[in-house]
Design a protein that fits this description.
The protein is an all-alpha fold. It has helices at residues 33-54, 56-78.
Length: 79
């Protein structure tokens, strides 16, 4: 009953680079990977030490789980 005018669809989309300089976002930390890995390692070591203080068997289970996880992650990333 009502017909809309047909508009042609563009067959390709053209991309043009921005003329503005790239903005540096202050919320994105760049070059902090080493510090993050050191912090994670300290947290893991302190967690294992705290758990080992209360239960030696649970500490061994936790170390086994961490070791197995690292091995599986390394194996799956190489596939």
């Amino acid at each position: 009953m009502f017909s809309q005018p047909e508009t042609p669809l563009p067959s390709t989309i053209q991309e043009s680079p921005s003329t503005e300089p790239i903005q540096q976002d202050p919320l994105i930390a760049k070059g902090w990977q080493r510090e993050q890995y050191i912090g994670i390692a300290i947290l893991v070591i302190s967690l294992v030490a705290a758990v080992g203080y209360f239960s030696r068997r649970f500490e061994y289970a936790l170390l086994f789980a961490f070791t197995l996880s690292i091995i599986l992650i390394a194996f799956l990333l190489t596939i």
